Amino acid sequence: MRSASPIRARRSKIRPCRAASSSLSNQSVEDAVSYTPYPSNIPRARRHVAQLAVDWGHPDVAGDAALPASELCTNALLHGCLRDRLFRVETSLTGNALRVAVTDPRGERLPYPRMPVADDQFGRGLLIVRTLANRWSVEKLTVGKTVWAELEIRGDLDV
Fold it and tell me: Measured between alpha carbons, how far is 127 from 150 in angstroms, rounded to an integer?
């Protein structure tokens, strides 16, 4: 019996950016988790990204970051995963942006937003990503692809 739990190949780093400061908003933080291609890992990834946003001091964007993460993971699972090949969710925070990037092994199937018909069951994920994210794109890799979305964050939490 296979486990649907994520592979904890996690790398969390905190790196100081150019401006030296003790606040987390002036640092770069990264996290990466690889998941097995099972539907039960989509809510795990979504909750993980939301928790990272909170842990990194930006609870106001946790929900907005979780939804694109969920949509990108769903697309990876439906269109980009191969049997027994993992997909990877990388979350990073830099000075003014929270980025969620999902990498899967199928680079020949690149996503594109489309206008779904009213009774279509699928086809709205990238429209949601495009609505919530300030920027998004696809990067073709030697093996696979990475689809990422960035949300701008407020730099000052004391407002």
Answer: 14
Q: Longest C-alpha distance within the chain, in Å?
A: 53
CA atoms within 13 A on the CB side of 148: 17
Which pLDDT tens digits describe the chain residue by residue (159 residues)? 455 555 544 444 444 333 333 345 557 899 999 999 999 999 999 999 999 999 999 999 999 999 999 999 998 888 777 777 899 999 999 989 999 999 998 877 776 666 666 666 665 667 777 878 889 989 999 989 999 999 999 764 443
List the structure tokens of 95: 């000075």
- Distance CA(17)–CA(64), nearest Å, equals 25
Give the integer Cα–Cα distance in Å for 91 and 34. Answer: 12
Tokens 């989509």 appear where?
42
Strands (E), 12-154: 13-16, 27-35, 87-94, 97-104, 135-140, 145-152
| Whole-model pTM over 0.90 | no
Nearest to 49 by CA among 127, 116, 129, 126: 129
Cβ(32)–Cβ(10) below 8 Å: yes
Phi, psi of 39 (to 5 degrees): -55, -30
